[in-house]
Specification:
117 residues; 0% helix; globular; 5-stranded antiparallel β-sheet
C-alpha cells in the first residue's frame, strides 16, 4: 500500500514542539478501507462506500463539515455535547432512543434525524 509521510514544520527552532507529522495511506478498495490519514491528534479513515470516521482522544472538541448539495457543520466536545449547524432550513428533527441506561443490556445506538430543506 502506498504511504506518504509529510512533516509540517513551523520554520522556527523555538516552535519545534508544534511541528506536525501527517501520514497518508492508500489501500486497495477491495479491503473496504480506501484511505487513512494519521496526524498528531488522531486519524481519519475513508471507506469505499464513502463513509468517513474521525478518531481522536487528545482533542477537547472535534469539528467537521459535510457537503452533499447542502452544507452541514458538526461540533462535538469531550463532555458529549453535539452541535449541528446548517445554512439550510431544518424542516424536521426526529429522535429515536433505543438505549436503556442501568438495565445491563447491550448498548444500542440512539439516533437523531434532521431533514434539511
Amino acid at each position: 500500500m502506498p504511504v506518504l509521510d509529510i512533516e509540517i514544520k513551523s520554520g522556527k527552532l523555538a516552535l519545534a514542539d508544534k511541528d506536525e507529522r501527517l501520514t497518508l495511506e492508500l489501500y486497495h478498495p477491495m479491503s473496504g478501507e480506501v484511505f487513512e490519514a494519521k496526524f498528531k491528534r488522531g486519524r481519519i479513515e475513508v471507506d469505499k462506500d464513502g463513509s468517513i470516521t474521525y478518531f481522536t482522544r487528545d482533542s477537547p472538541s472535534v469539528n467537521f463539515s459535510i457537503f452533499l448539495k447542502r452544507n452541514l457543520s458538526v461540533s462535538m466536545t469531550d463532555s458529549g455535547q453535539v452541535v449541528i449547524r446548517s445554512p439550510s432550513k431544518i424542516l424536521s428533527v426526529v429522535q429515536k432512543k433505543n438505549s436503556r441506561k442501568g438495565t445491563g443490556e447491550n448498548v444500542t445506538s440512539d439516533m437523531v434525524t434532521l431533514q434539511l430543506e
